[in-house]
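[READ THE FOLD]
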Amino acid sequence: MSFTEQLKKEFSTRTLVLMPVAIAINIAVGEIVTRLKLPIYLYSIGTVLVGALAGPWAAALTGALANLIWGMTLTPTAAPFFYVAAVIGLMAGFFARWGAFRKASPQWLSAIIGGVFFFALTLFILSFVYSSTSPEGFLVLPNAADLIGQQWWIFAITTIAGLLVGYFLLQQAGYAGLAGLATGVVAAIISAPTAAIVFGGVTGAGTDLLVAAFRASGAGVLASTLAQGTVSDPFDKMLSFLLVWLIIQALPKRMQRQ
């Protein structure tokens, strides 16, 4: 099948109906998260859904349009990151072609993904719970190694819980979790220069708290935005991919085939 034929198949009537819905999901969820100042994004759920159901190019266009429309209507800082949203869509679509959302992964892999997810979530939450404020008014996060050592029992409980959730509930979602993790790493790397150069690390999102915390530790703007992305993006994209995996599992088989 040629590339042109592939594009025609990918941009079917069903896809063209799905894309505006996905764009609305991205903007609605992204705006809620931004207003609540949560240190994650979740603006890619619709993009990943299109990638899983339609393909990479439709997902790339969905992601880019969502950020541009969101930037022109509600949150101007979203627009310059349209290329990041497009890359997320491309990766979601190609991972879907390789079976990330439909191929059954070993349960042990799903257990590991669940354990990693719960461990990261625990570290994320406790870092803010045990944070402090510097004399200059900056947020100071605790050292991760010290925090894990001091609260090892909490991490042990939540990690075991994550292993059990992954093994018994997610079961076959391991590939989707890995795909989200890889996508998050790439998104963190390619978005950091724009966040640092265009916005000075301050985009108005909840992730600004993390950037400020890394700046307070002595890191530069680019290093701080990259560190923030490395902390937030893999966790965020793993969550988005797993949510889409759950949505797809809930769809009737006939609809999935269509």
Notes: The chain has twelve helices and two strands.
